[in-house]
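step=encode ok
step=design start
structure_in=
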């Protein structure tokens, strides 16, 4: 049996139904879908995502990323994305995993590993695709295989995860992942600004204040923020507002005007226009459509 087939069988074994599942291994989540899913708007936190079967389409701003079992996705900052499964069936379900990145473990590896192990190339985007090599795939399989022996997880999962992060740090993702752990890096500064915007997304965004918190000039901040996220700070804030409004309407049955006001919109008509532009339909029609769908079809 080849490794990718084993990985697919392990994910199938530990899901068994469609949806997104947490596991006994910290930060490891599994996903399964037997049909293509709806485009799902989420804020994707730093993670490594691996597909064992099927195919997925992810959009960051105007950029489109397609990935499958031949590639893996790395996200190094919180990014508003649109993701959906595009290849899945009853006979060959979509099967994938996501391992959330642990900055503390990354920092420890940076201190301990030889400096010549790391690439000096510094990336722009906070998200990228790379080929899935045999060593990394073997590492991922061994991590998921631990779900078969729960008694071993507490001892072996940290070691296996550490090895996996080391392979990422010494591979094509080296520059991107190093910046997560280095407080002086541009990506770390942008991530600090992202955190500030996320905590205060309902308020008027003052670029000068956010840039100052990130220890950058306004022009430098705008340039680096867009390089990492593919969108301006205002566009980023708008996506956060609209995603939260959609959640409020769907989960709390708020009307559009109330939800729009709750996330910082003073004009109901402006909120409806921007909502329709992002989600494809005005709030009432969009929410009615979502409520008619099984929950798993909404998983991005």
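sequence_out=
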């Amino acid at each position: 049996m080849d490794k990718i087939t084993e990985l697919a069988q392990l994910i199938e074994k530990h899901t068994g139904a469609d949806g997104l599942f947490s596991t006994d291994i910290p930060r490891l989540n599994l996903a399964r879908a037997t049909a293509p899913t709806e485009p799902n708007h989420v804020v994707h936190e730093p993670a490594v995502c691996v597909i064992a079967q099927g195919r997925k389409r992810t959009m960051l701003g105007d950029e489109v990323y397609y990935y499958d079992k031949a590639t893996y996705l790395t996200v190094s900052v919180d990014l508003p994305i649109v993701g959906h499964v595009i290849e899945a069936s009853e006979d060959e379900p979509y099967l994938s995993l996501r391992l959330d990145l642990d900055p503390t473990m990354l920092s420890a590896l940076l201190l301990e590993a030889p400096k010549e192990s790391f690439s000096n190339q510094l990336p722009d985007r906070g998200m990228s695709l790379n080929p899935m090599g045999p060593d990394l795939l073997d590492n991922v399989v061994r991590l998921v295989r631990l779900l078969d022996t729960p008694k071993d997880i507490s001892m072996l999962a940290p070691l296996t995860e550490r090895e996996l992060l080391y392979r990422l740090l010494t591979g094509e993702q080296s520059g991107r992942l190093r910046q997560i752990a280095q407080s002086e890096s541009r990506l770390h500064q942008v991530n600090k600004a992202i955190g500030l915007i996320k905590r205060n997304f309902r308020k008027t965004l003052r670029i000068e204040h956010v840039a100052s918190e990130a220890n950058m000039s306004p022009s430098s901040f705008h340039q680096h923020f867009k390089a990492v996220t593919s969108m301006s700070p205002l566009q980023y804030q708008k996506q956060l507002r609209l995603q939260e409004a959609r959640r409020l309407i769907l989960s709390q049955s708020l009307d559009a005007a109330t939800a729009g006001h709750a996330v910082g919109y003073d004009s109901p008509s402006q909120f409806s226009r921007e909502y329709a532009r992002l989600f494809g339909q005005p709030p009432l029609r969009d929410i009615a459509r979502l409520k008619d769908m099984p929950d798993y079809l909404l998983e991005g």
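step=design ok
step=annotate ok -> Residues 202 and 263 are 5 Å apart (CA to CA).
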